[in-house]
Amino acid sequence: MSSIAYKSEAPATVRPAVAYELSSRGAQWCDYAACGADAKYRATPAALLPASAWVDAFRALRDQHGFDFLVDHSAVDYPDRSPRFTVVALVESTATHERLLLKARVAEGEAFPSLAGLYRSADWAERETYDMFGIPFAGHPDLTRIYMPQDYEGWPLRKDFPMEGHLRFRD
Predict the structure, then answer these.
(1) Residue ranges in the chain modelled with pLDDT below 50
(2) pTM of the entire predicted model
(3) 5-138, what's its fold?
(4) Strands 137-138, 112-113: parallel, antiparallel or unpaired by DSSP?
(5) Are the C-beta atoms of 10 and 22 separated by less than 8 Å?
């Protein structure tokens, strides 16, 4: 399977107003078919946004288009790519059950805009992403580790993290 391709046209399953909203903010739509992905992985429309449009796009999706539930929010590490990380968020309209997967890229050490002011579920998800990947979220109300000890060194879900870890836990 090759890399994901991107195109300017939204999939037919995306409402035109939603497609326009995201495209006007610089979104490029994922073309999973072009890279040979199985159809079951293409059911949820996905778009890559510029990081600078992240919060405004989610605010518009929530306030104007009914995407009122942040289902999931995490990241993917691509250590050989620049920028290194892709932040990923899945939103749903609880009225229509439409879903959108939105992505944006962020370099190592760069702060990424927080969604915690828009969706309560972003609070925990962003803390988890920070704890496992080391991506800081600008504007987050309490960006502290939740799984690893506060003094733990390293980010366990990065692909360059040693398989044996850095075990320095206290009993």
Answers:
(1) 1, 171
(2) 0.91
(3) Beta Polymerase; domain 2 (3.30.460)
(4) parallel
(5) yes
